[in-house]
C-alpha cells in the first residue's frame, strides 16, 4: 500500500514539474496578428505587412493602439522570420482574421501564399480574404477606419457586406475549395480606399489562382444570386418603365437558385433559375404602390433586368474561360467521362445559357 | 489444457459492442480520407462501405474460429500448429499488437506536436502515457473494458460537431456515383485498413466474455456503427473539400473541426484534439492488454511483468520515431501486417481449422471437444 501511495505522489510531482517544460504563450507577451497583407516587391519578391494590437499598460485609460510592420522576402515563412526581427514580441498567427492581397500580386497568382497559411495549423479556416485595389499595405497601415481598430474593422466590414449586402460570400476555405476544384474558379471581394475610408468596390474574378478582372457592385449582386442562396440582402434597382424612370429598393431579399444542364441538343444548355423574394422599402415613382398590377409590373421589370444581365455575364465568363458560377461542376455531375482539360478547352466554349428569374415582392412597407 | 477464466473476471457479453467499436475508432479516423480519395476519388465512400462489409465477414470468421476452438488465439494456434510453431505465431501477433499500440500513441503525439504544442518533446508525452497506461492495464481486463466504455460514450458530442461543416457542403461533388472502376474502389478500401483494424483483438479477449457464444450480434453491431461513422465522415469530407484539396489535407477530419465556430469558442479543433485522447487511450490500453495477455499465455509469465516489458517497448518505439517520414513508414508496416493478418491469415486459419477438424474426427472421433 505504502509503495502505491509513494508512486502516486511521485506521479503528481512529475505532472507538476513537467508543466514547466513547454514554452508558454501569455497574451501580454506575444503580438497577436489580426491582419496580414501580401504585396509585390520587385520581380519575384513578396512584401508582407502585418498589423496587431498593442496595449499601453501605463496611464489611467487602457488605450489600445495598433502596430504595423512590414518585410520583404521570397516566401511567406521567410517574410515571417524577417517580421519577427522587427517585432518586440513574438508574432502569433492564431487570431488572424483578415488576409488582404494586393492587386499586382494577385495577377501573378496567389496559390503559394494562401497555401502557406493553410499549411499553418494555427491559422483558422474561416478567415476573411479580400483583394485590394492597389496595395494591401496602404489599407493596413493607413489610418482609415474611423477610430476603430483595423484588426476587427476590416473583417467586420467584409463579413457584413457579404451577409447583408451585395458581394458573394467567401472565406479561406471556400476560396481554396474553388481553387483546388477542377470545375470552378474562385472569387474574392475587392476593397478600395475612397475619400479616406475603406469600402467594397466589387468582386475580383480569378482564373485558377490568377486575378483576371473586377466585377462592379451591381454585377457582384448578380454573381451572388447565381452562386449562393442569399438571405437578408438589400439592393437598389433602376426601373425604366414606359411612363417614367424610377428607383426601387428591395430589402430582405431571399434568393434560391436551381441549376440544370440540358445535354440533349448539339450544344449543352446551362439553365439557371433564380427565385427571389423581397420587400420594397423605397420607391421614387409617382404611382401608388397599392395600385393593382404595379407591383406585378415592377416584378417583371426586375426579372427581366436580372435575367438579361445574368446571361450576359455567363457568356462573358465563358468567353474569358473562367468559371466562378461552377458551370463545370454541373457538367461533371452529369458525365462519367470527366476530363477537366477537355471541358475547359472545348466543351465549355460551346455551352449556351438560359436564365429565368422569378421575383416575388411580399410587401411594400408601411405607407402607401 | 486451458484453464477457464474465473467468473469474477468476466464481463457482460454486450460490452463486446464497445470493445469492437471503441478499438476501431482511434487515430485513423482523423485522416483516413486522403488515402482513399487518392485511389477512388469522389467514390471513396463506397470504398469505406466495402471495407466495412469485409470487416463483418471477418468478424463472422473470428467467431467461427473461436467457437470451434473454445479458447483464444493462442489455443487455436496450439491446436492447429502444435506448441512450438503455434507459440511462435502467437508471439508475432503480440509484437504486432505492441507495434499497433506504439503507432497509435506516436501518431497522436505527432498531432499534438503539429497542432498544439510545437515544442513538446515526444518523451514527455510518452512518459505520461506510460504511467497512465500501466495504471489502467494493470487493473486487469475489467478496468480496460471500463475505459473503453467511457471512451465510446464521452466523445459522442464530437461527432455532432462534424455536422457543422455542412454549412459549406457541396453535395454535387458526389454525383455521378461509381465513376471509378471496381478495382480502384477496392484499392481505396485497402487504404482504410489502419482505421478499421483493432477488432481482431477479439481473438484474445473472447474467453473473458460471459455467454460468449451469443455475443456475435453485439460484435457485428459494433462494427456496423464504426462503418456508419466512417462512411458519414467520408461523405461529409467529400462534400466539404474538393478532390485536390482533400489530397493536400493530411488530417482532414481535424481540419473539418477548424470551421466549427461556437459563440464562446472560435477554434474548436483544440478542444477536439484534447478530447481525442479519450478515443486513443482505450485503443492503446486494449492492445497492450492483449499483447501482455498473449505473452502471459505463451511464456506462462506474470501478466504485469509482460505488460511492463510491452510498455517499455512501446515507449522505445515512440521515442525512436522522430520524423513524419519514419512515422509514416512504420505506420505502413503495421497497417500492411495488420491487413494480411486480418484479411488473409484469419480466413486461412478457418480453412486450416476445418481441415484439421475433419482429419481429427476421422482418426479420434470427438476428441477435440476436450478443451475446457
Describe the structure.
Chain B: It comes from Alkalihalophilus sp. As8PL. Chain B: This is Spore germination protein. The complex is a heterodimer of chains A (368) and B (372). Chain A has 11 helices and 14 strands. With 368 residues, chain A is of the alpha/beta class. Chain A starts with a helix and ends in a 5-residue tail after the last strand. In chain A, 37% of the residues are buried. Chain B has one domain (11-344): Amino acid/polyamine transporter I (Up-down Bundle). Chain B has helices at residues 16-24, 33-40, 44-69, 73-81, 83-116, 122-138, 141-153, 156-161, 182-191, 193-196, 202-205, 216-240, 243-248, 252-258, 269-275, 277-299, 303-319, 324-364. Classes of the chains: A alpha/beta (368), B mainly alpha (372). The A-B interface holds A 11, 14-15, 18, 21-23, 94-95, 115, 118, 121, 124-126, 173-174, 176-182, 184, 329-330, 333-336, 338 and B 114-115, 117, 119-121, 124, 127-128, 131, 168, 170, 172-173, 175-176, 179, 240-245, 248, 255, 258-259, 261, 266-267.
Radius of gyration of chain B over alpha carbons? 21 Å
User: Which whole number gives the mean pLDDT of chain B?
Assistant: 89
Give the helix proportion of chain B (percent range). over 70%
CATH C-level of chain B: Mainly Alpha
Q: Approximately how much beta-strand content do the residues of chain B carry?
A: under 5%
Label the structural class of chain B.
Answer: mainly alpha
Span from first to last CA of chain A?
A: 88 Å
Main β-sheet description of chain B? none
* Rg calc of chain A: 26 Å
What's the SSE pattern of chain B? HHHHHHHHHHHHHHHHHH
Ranges of chain A where pLDDT stays below 50 over 5 or more residues in a row are: none
Strand order within the widest beta sheet of chain A: 4-3-2-6-7-8-9-10
Q: Could you tell me how far the N terminus lies from the C terminus of chain B, measured between alpha carbons in angstroms? A: 7 Å
Amino acid at each position: 500500500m505504502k509503495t502505491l501511495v509513494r508512486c502516486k505522489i511521485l506521479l503528481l510531482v512529475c505532472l507538476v514539474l513537467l508543466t514547466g517544460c513547454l514554452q508558454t504563450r501569455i497574451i501580454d507577451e506575444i503580438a497577436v496578428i489580426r491582419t496580414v497583407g501580401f504585396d509585390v516587391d520587385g520581380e519575384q519578391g513578396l512584401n508582407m505587412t502585418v498589423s496587431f494590437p498593442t496595449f499601453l499598460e501605463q496611464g489611467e485609460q487602457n488605450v489600445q493602439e495598433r502596430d504595423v510592420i512590414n518585410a520583404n522576402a521570397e516566401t511567406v515563412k521567410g517574410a515571417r522570420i524577417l517580421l519577427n526581427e522587427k517585432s518586440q514580441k513574438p508574432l502569433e498567427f492564431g487570431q488572424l482574421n483578415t488576409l488582404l492581397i494586393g492587386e499586382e500580386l494577385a495577377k501573378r497568382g496567389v496559390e503559394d501564399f494562401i497555401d502557406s497559411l493553410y499549411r499553418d495549423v494555427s491559422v483558422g479556416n474561416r478567415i476573411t480574404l479580400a483583394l485590394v485595389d492597389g496595395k494591401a499595405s496602404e489599407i493596413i497601415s493607413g489610418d482609415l477606419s474611423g477610430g476603430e481598430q483595423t484588426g476587427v474593422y476590416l473583417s467586420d466590414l467584409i463579413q457584413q457586406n457579404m451577409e447583408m449586402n451585395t458581394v458573394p460570400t467567401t472565406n479561406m476555405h471556400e476560396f481554396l475549395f474553388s481553387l483546388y476544384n477542377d470545375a470552378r474558379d474562385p472569387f474574392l471581394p475587392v476593397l478600395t480606399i475612397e475619400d479616406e475610408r475603406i469600402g467594397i468596390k466589387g468582386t475580383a474574378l480569378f482564373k485558377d489562382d490568377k486575378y483576371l478582372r473586377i466585377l462592379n457592385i451591381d454585377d457582384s449582386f448578380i454573381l451572388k444570386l447565381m452562386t449562393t442562396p442569399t438571405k437578408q440582402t438589400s439592393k437598389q434597382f433602376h426601373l425604366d418603365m414606359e411612363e417614367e424612370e424610377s428607383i426601387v429598393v428591395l430589402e430582405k431579399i431571399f434568393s434560391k437558385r436551381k441549376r440544370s444542364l440540358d445535354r440533349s441538343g448539339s450544344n449543352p444548355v446551362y439553365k439557371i433559375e433564380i427565385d427571389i423574394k423581397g420587400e420594397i422599402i423605397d420607391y421614387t415613382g409617382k404611382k401608388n404602390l397599392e395600385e393593382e398590377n404595379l407591383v406585378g409590373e415592377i416584378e417583371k421589370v426586375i426579372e427581366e433586368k436580372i435575367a438579361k444581365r445574368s446571361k450576359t455575364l455567363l457568356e462573358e465568363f465563358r468567353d474569358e474561360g473562367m468559371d466562378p458560377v461552377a458551370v463545370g461542376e454541373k457538367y461533371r455531375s452529369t458525365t462519367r467521362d470527366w476530363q477537366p482539360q477537355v471541358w475547359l478547352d472545348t466543351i465549355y466554349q460551346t455551352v449556351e445559357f438560359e436564365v429565368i428569374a422569378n421575383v416575388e415582392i411580399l410587401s411594400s412597407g408601411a405607407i402607401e | 489444457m486451458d484453464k477457464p477464466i474465473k467468473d469474477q473476471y468476466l464481463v457482460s457479453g454486450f460490452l463486446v459492442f464497445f470493445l469492437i467499436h471503441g478499438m476501431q475508432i482511434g487515430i485513423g479516423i482523423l485522416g483516413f480520407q486522403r488515402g482513399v480519395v487518392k485511389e477512388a476519388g469522389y467514390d471513396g465512400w463506397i470504398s469505406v462501405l466495402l471495407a466495412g462489409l469485409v470487416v463483418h465477414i471477418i468478424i463472422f470468421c473470428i467467431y467461427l474460429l473461436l467457437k470451434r476452438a473454445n479458447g483464444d488465439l493462442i489455443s487455436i494456434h496450439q491446436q492447429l500448429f502444435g506448441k512450438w510453431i503455434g507459440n511462435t505465431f502467437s508471439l508475432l501477433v503480440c509484437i504486432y499488437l505492441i507495434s499497433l499500440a506504439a503507432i497509435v500513441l506516436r501518431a497522436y503525439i505527432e498531432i499534438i506536436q503539429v497542432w498544439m504544442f510545437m515544442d513538446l518533446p515526444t518523451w514527455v508525452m510518452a512518459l505520461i502515457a506510460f504511467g497512465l497506461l500501466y495504471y489502467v492495464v494493470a487493473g486487469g481486463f475489467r478496468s480496460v473494458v471500463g475505459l473503453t466504455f467511457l471512451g465510446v460514450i464521452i466523445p459522442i458530442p464530437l461527432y455532432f460537431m462534424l455536422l457543422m461543416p455542412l454549412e459549406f457542403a457541396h453535395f454535387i461533388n458526389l454525383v455521378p456515383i461509381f465513376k471509378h472502376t471496381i478495382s480502384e474502389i477496392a484499392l481505396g478500401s485497402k487504404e482504410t485498413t489502419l482505421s478499421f483494424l483493432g477488432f481482431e483483438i477479439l481473438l484474445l479477449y473472447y474467453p473473458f466474455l460471459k455467454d460468449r457464444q451469443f455475443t456475435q450480434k453485439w460484435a457485428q453491431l459494433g462494427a456496423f456503427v464504426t462503418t456508419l461513422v466512417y462512411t458519414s465522415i467520408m461523405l461529409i469530407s467529400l462534400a466539404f473539400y474538393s478532390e485536390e484539396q482533400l489530397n493536400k489535407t493530411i488530417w482532414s477530419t481535424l481540419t473539418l473541426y477548424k470551421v466549427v465556430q461556437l459563440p464562446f469558442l472560435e477554434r474548436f479543433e483544440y478542444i477536439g484534439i484534447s478530447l481525442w485522447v479519450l478515443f486513443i487511450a482505450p485503443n492503446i490500453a486494449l492492445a497492450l492488454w492483449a499483447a501482455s495477455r498473449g505473452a502471459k499465455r505463451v511464456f506462462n509469465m506474470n501478466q504485469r511483468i509482460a505488460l511492463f516489458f510491452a510498455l517499455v517497448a512501446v515507449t522505445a518505439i515512440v521515442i525512436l520515431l522522430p520524423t513524419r517520414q519514419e512515422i509514416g513508414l512504420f505506420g505502413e508496416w503495421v497497417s500492411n501486417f495488420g491487413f494480411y493478418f486480418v484479411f488473409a491469415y484469419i480466413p486461412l486459419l478457418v480453412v486450416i481449422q476445418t481441415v484439421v477438424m475433419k482429419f481429427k474426427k476421422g482418426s479420434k472421433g470427438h476428441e477435440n471437444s476436450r478443451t475446457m
